[in-house]
Structure formats: structure tokens, C-alpha cells
Amino acid sequence: MRDSFFDVQFNLVGKVTNLPDEFNISTYSIFPGFCDVHVHFREPGFSYKETIHSGCMAAASSGYTDVCTMPNLNPVPDSVENLKQQLNIIEKDAIINVLPYGSITVGEKGEVLSDLEGMAKFVVAFSDDGKGVQDAGMMKEAMLRAKEFGKIITAHCEDNSLLHGGYIHDGIYARAHGHQGICSESEWKPIERDILLAKETGCKYHVGHISTKESVELIRQAKKYGVDITCERAPHYLLLDENDLQEDGKFKMNPPLRGREDREALLEGIVDGTIDMIATDHAPHSREEKSKGLKGSGFGIVGLETAFPLLYTELVKKNVISLVLLVLLMSDNPRNRFGIDLNGAYSVWDLNEEWIINPKKFYSKGTATPFEGRTVFGKCIYTFCNGNVVFNKSF
Fold first, then answer.
1. What is the residue-averaged pLDDT of the chain?
2. Nearest to residue 210, comparing CAs of 226, 187, 228?
3. Is 281 a catalytic residue?
4. What pTM did the predictor assign?
5. 291-335: per-residue pLDDT in tens?
6. Catalytic, out of 194, 262, 276, 281
7. In this structure, are residues 72 and 104 in contact, taking their beta carbons and an 8 Å threshold?
8. Distance CA 328, CA 209 (A)
């Protein structure tokens, strides 16, 4: 799929319109519109955290033209009636392509399957993100139905019986500072279960936000045996581990930052192709919700507005991966897996611009990021989606 990157980089130059006369395209880079298959735009139900419009602005300002919104909303999109509340807001307020998930189970409670058939033509995939489907029988039935409708099951892999009230990784930092830890097994055990179910059912299965070395190896082996499985990784798990933790809610997310060996395994999985795509798990909260330290703060950080600059600065400029691979991870690969067309969407970047991450300047309502104050390279200048300029840095 490298051709699509180069098509945009070189062949679309002549199609860039509405640029000022002094704009010298030879000094900038053009990328296909980024695609994030895991974001939380919080609407309907939690608009004090984020809205469709503010989330779209955060995305567009960072080169994203397509995002897939998770279903932990109020109401949960477990029926066409509930889903349409979100679709109506998207139609009214979205400036980029916003593709919602439908929930796997009613209310994400894991007890009764949602109206998968009714929602299938309106959603990009199905997930109970934020909660793991605990019952294997329920997950198998969901996989069978999803296969019938040609949809992906995206799993939040978390075994509740192994959590024990934990809220950061069960590792060195937790033990040294008296925190309750979340063991790695709580993630990789459900993945192990679901791999067997995906193999049995033939379902297209996608694992959200993996964080452990065991998860990487399980998925690597599953691919070798022909299981129809893909997975994603967020930037913060590639660039941080438990050694970077501070007593601050902006370092709290689920799954948590794991050990150094886990981070190294994730990087290896990026390089060898085990990990298919980058997804931010953009999860805004109010300032109050993120002001209660590691124990009391809500899970989740924002990520759309820092993803490409961070990864370009820390991985591409330091020769860990190529720029082409980064674009594949952020555009081509998620599009290919989830069937999301590019349709000429692209963004224009100044890769030489150096800046300091300042959450006060975010378009997102959320400001919690562990990367505050970090110096990065790469600024989005323009973003084009559906034939429209949806972001212009000069505005």
C-alpha cells in the first residue's frame, strides 16, 4: 500500500487549491488524511468533556480526516434509535468524516446483544470499548453476527476478575509508591480467549490499545496461523512506560503505562508489522476529573493534537521507523482494515517547524496529556476533507 502514500505526496501537489500566492509547496510535505479508528468524542451524553465539533477541530488541526467514535455514550448506541441521536449531531456539527461504532451489548453491560443487524449499515464496527465482554459465549455470538453483516469486532480486552481495584500497572512504580496495580494478565488473557473464538468463527477481529509484551506475541502468533486479526497501539504506549509516571492524573489511562520491556515489545511489533496501526484513544475529561492524582482521576488522555508530531519527532527523526511506515500506520492501514476510503483527503505539513506542546492551545476540550512541555517537530498547515479546507493554520 505504499503507492497510496506516494500518490498523495507527489500526484496531488497539482490539485492543492485555495493556497495563498506566497505558499511554496516545495517546502512542505503532503500526506493522505490520517485515520483514527479509536477516539472518544463524548457526545451525546458527556458534552462537557468533548463535543463532535470540538473533537473534529482537534482532529482536523492535526491532519485527521476520518475518525471512528467509541460507543461509551449516553445513550449507548445499542439500537438504531439510540444511534441516530449521535448521527444527527454528526450531520449537524462534524467538519470531517465521523464514523460511529455500535455497541456489542445493550448498555455495554455484557448481558444481551445489541441490535447488530439494525445498526450494521450505519456503523463502522462494533465494540464495547471501556468494558471487556466477560462472557465467552456472548463474544462468540457477537462474532458470528458481525461476520454475517461483514463487520469487525473491536475488543477492549480486560478481565474484570483480575483487576482487584487497580488503576496503574502492577509494576515497579506501583509497589514503590503504594498504588494498586493492574496486572498484564488482565489484558492478554482475554486476547488469548478471543483469538480462539475468532479462529473458530472466522470473524474479523481487531484488538484495541494493546499494552503488554504478551499481547504482542499472542497476536504475532495468531497472524502466523491465519487468524483474521489486527491491532492498534497509541503513541503514549510507544513513547512512555511506568518509569515516566508522576503523581498526576495526566499519566492515568486504561490500559496503563506498562514496563520498559512492554514498551520495547510494542516498538518491535511496530517495526515487524505485528501492530497494524496507530490509534490515539483520544479520551478527554474535564479538568476536575483529571485533577485527582493517579488514584482518583478518570482514565484517559487526549492524543489527536500531538500524535503525528510526537511520533515523527521520537521515531522518524531518530531513525526508529521510516516516515513512509508512520503514514501507513496512521492512514493506509486503518483505512484498509476498516474499509474507509481516502477520497482525496490530505493534509499539508511543515516538518521543520519546532514547537512546544501546550494544552492551553488545544482545540479539544480535554487538556490532559503527559507530553505537556515537550518540544516536537511538525505542524499541520492545511487539512482538506471532502473537497473542503477544514483546517487552515493561519485562521
1. 94
2. 187
3. yes
4. 0.94
5. 999 999 999 999 999 999 999 999 999 999 999 999 999 999 999
6. 281
7. no
8. 18
